[in-house]
Each structure stands twice: as C-alpha cells, then as structure tokens.
Write a structure and sequence with these properties.
76% of the residues lie in helices and 0% in strands. The protein is mainly α.
Length: 102
C-alpha cells in the first residue's frame, strides 16, 4: 500500500508546476495546459483523501469525475476562444491580445 505522503508529493509537484507554467508562459495554449495540471492535482487529492478518510465511500471519486468533466468543457471552450483569437490577430500570444481591446 502506497503511503498518503507520496500521493501528496506528486500532487504538490503538479500543482506548483502548473502555477509556475501559468505565470511564466506567454502562449495561451501553454497557459491552458498549466491550468489542466492544476486541476489534475486537485483530482488526485480528491481521490486520495477519499481513499484514506472514507474507504467505503465514493464521494471523492465522484468529485474527481465531475471535475474532469468540467475540465473537458473548459478546455473545449478555451480552444474555441483561441481559434477565434488566432483568426482575428494571427497569434495566440498573450502579449498580442492587447490588439483585441478596441
């Protein structure tokens, strides 16, 4: 049986990699991938805490599935927005989004 600390270490690394990637990248697609890393870290925490705190319950797993569904919808909408941005200004760099202001 794997200890709780190992899952939390993996989740923490994923969370901080996502936060670092979100704040340092200037490409909207890379920022979206960073947000997905953050959401996956929370999914791991839902499943792990459910397993260790309530071994007979499935609430944490249902929260994880619900979060994955929301992540998929968020990704689809974000990619659609990125396609529209690319059609307007031919770039998906965050620095170029200032052109869409007016």
């Amino acid at each position: 049986m794997v200890h709780l600390e190992y899952y939390l270490i993996v989740s923490t690394i994923m969370l901080f990699a996502g936060i670092y990637g979100f704040f340092t990248r200037r490409n909207t697609l890379a920022m979206l991938i960073s947000i997905e890393l953050i959401l996956n870290a929370t999914d791991i925490n839902f499943a792990v805490f459910n397993r260790y705190l309530f071994p007979d319950g499935l609430e944490g797993y249902f929260f994880s599935l619900f979060s994955i569904a929301i992540s998929a919808a968020e990704t689809a909408i974000a990619i659609a927005i990125m396609i529209n941005i690319y059609r307007n200004i031919r770039s998906i760099q965050v620095d170029k989004l200032e052109d869409l202001k007016w």
